[in-house]
Amino acid sequence: MMSPHKISLAALAWVLAACLTSAPATAQEAASAEQVRIGYVDLEDSPRYDPFLANFLVPQRPWGRSMAGALLGIADGQQIGQVIGVEFGLREAHGSTVDELAATVGEWAQDGVHFIIADLPSEQLLALSEALRDQPVILLNVSAQQDELRGANCRVNIVHVIPSYRMQTDAIVQYLVSKRWTNILALQGPLAQDAAIIQALRESVGFFGADIVEVRPFVLSADPRRRDQNNVALVTEGTNYDVVFVADSDGEFARSVPYQTNPPRPVVGSAGLVAEAWHWAWERQGAPQVNARFEAANNRRMHRFDWAAWAAVRAVTQSVLRSQSTEFEPVRDYLLGERMNLDGSKGNPMSVRAWDHQMRQGMLLAAGNVVVGLAPIEGFLHQTNDLDTLGVDAPRTACQF
């Protein structure tokens, strides 16, 4: 347990400033420092990290494993740790099965590693959560965006750092309503994730006062017999609309939609204007420094999964600092509590929603190499926190911990 000294706001500001100038810890100081280890797990052969698809410039595909973001967060945490006498570090495991990962994390928990960054698809994330339900462990979800994980299939031992599909569609629909582009033609891909995105869109338009003119299926195919579903001009003709929303979790079809619609209209969703947790072109709130440090260390740009892993580590290190403890329960309670005030370098301070453990945050609206805006859009207000206009609010949640 850290010594129970009090940290005022002025002292906290001094701590953060000192991180920029403090000298490296001596060997004796490092030996006496308390240790906080954060875990990182993913699947060895995850198809999401197929380098061919990433190199093919599909925007939805990550450009490298999110562990790079976690390592950047650890580097930040080590500077703070020098001042408060805590040494932050990372343990990693790349497993072939959930059982293998669960066994590893169980061993880590016995060794005091309680906060685990989980870069896993939704099915494996839920399985790992179930396997660890009796362990003193919090899983920090940095890549599974399905709303059901924050709803009927929520779990008390998961914190969602990555935004949900509903947060993405809320951000986009807020922007469309602000522009009075309220008649939406939706194109839906064949995957379950695509259907989940369309469901989120339906809820968003119902809440903010837009309208889905029609939902039309598309397929990624060169088969001329399926031209009515694989040709963008044919898929988008024959009705009136203000904008085309594409639900394509793979991103391969979506990238061909802008400038190909009939009639020509703006494209949003999985291409054109996209709602992102992070974007390399964001130029405010310290984002250029975050991006520059990440690119220098990894020789690539920061993806949304990288940002989520970086933010997850920052959430843990801040919780250690503010709770004045390295023990699991005080750190967990601060992380999940109302006092959390996390800087994610994109606007309003972030914190964890009590009703579904989603981290509330702003969403970047980006098109190509520019960030067009930051949601919540001005004018969309909430009675307690405007960030709660993005995602499912407490009165409508299906989550029951």
Automatic annotation (TrEMBL):
Coiled coil spans: none
Pfam families: Peripla_BP_6 (PF13458)
Cross-referenced InterPro entries: ABC_transptr_sub-bd_PQQ, BCAA_transport, Leu-bd, Peripla_BP_I
Keyword ATP-binding tagged: no
Range of residues in the leader sequence: 1-27
Keyword list, A-Z: Amino-acid transport, Signal, Transport
Residues annotated as domain Leucine-binding protein: 69-248
UniProt protein name: ABC transporter substrate-binding protein
